[in-house]
């Protein structure tokens, strides 16, 4: 698996998902910068909470599942708390937590570049 290619692909998929939002497209593009700031300043769990609170997890959480699987297996989708359990479990392993944060930051940075190129 080429990790950088996967990150680039996921960043592109985020922008494609935003393009499918119609009139909410501008809102989601602005959220790229906002979630990147939350992630950088407050961490991975705050990123998840922010996405959930703003009802944008369909783009900014579900699209990064392939990135999240690099560090830890994600619980099945039938469990509504699967992401919460994932992020809480992830916080128990500092190297995985920091690696995941770095992966998500890079993915969102690529998404920002893809969005600006449109």
Describe it for me?
The chain has one domain (3-117): Peroxidase, domain 1, CATH 1.10.520. The radius of gyration is 13 Å and the shape is globular. It starts with a helix and ends with a helix. By secondary structure, it is mainly alpha-helical. Helices cover 73% and strands 0% of the residues. The chain has helices at 3-19, 25-42, 44-53, 57-60, 65-68, 82-90, 94-117. The model has no long low-confidence stretch (mean pLDDT 85).
What's the main sheet like? Answer: none
How many separate structural domains?
A: 1
CATH topology tier name? Peroxidase, domain 1
**What integer is the average pLDDT?**
85
Q: In what range is the share of β-strand residues? A: under 5%
Text of the CATH class: Mainly Alpha
Helical percentage? over 70%
In angstroms, what separates the terminal alpha carbons? 28 Å
Order of helices and strands: HHHHHHH
Low-confidence stretches at least 5 residues in length (pLDDT < 50)? none
What is the CATH architecture annotation?
Orthogonal Bundle
Task: Write a concise keyword list for the protein shown above.
Peroxidase, domain 1, single chain
What are the SSEs and their pairings?
Blueprint (H helix, E strand, L loop, with lengths): L2 H17 L5 H18 L1 H10 L3 H4 L4 H4 L13 H9 L3 H24 L1
Briefly, what is this?
With 118 residues, the chain is mostly helical.
């Amino acid at each position: 698996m080429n990790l950088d290619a996967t990150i680039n692909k996921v960043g592109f998929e985020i922008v494609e998902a935003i393009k499918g939002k119609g009139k909410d497209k501008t809102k989601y593009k602005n959220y790229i910068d906002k979630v990147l700031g939350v992630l950088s300043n407050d961490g991975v769990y705050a990123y998840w909470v922010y996405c959930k609170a703003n009802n944008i997890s369909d783009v900014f959480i579900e699209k990064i599942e392939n990135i999240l699987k690099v560090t830890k297996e994600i619980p099945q989708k039938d469990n509504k708390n699967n992401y919460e359990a994932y992020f809480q479990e992830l916080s128990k392993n500092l190297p995985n937590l920091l690696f995941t944060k770095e992966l998500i930051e890079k993915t969102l940075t690529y998404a920002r570049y893809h969005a600006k190129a449109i």
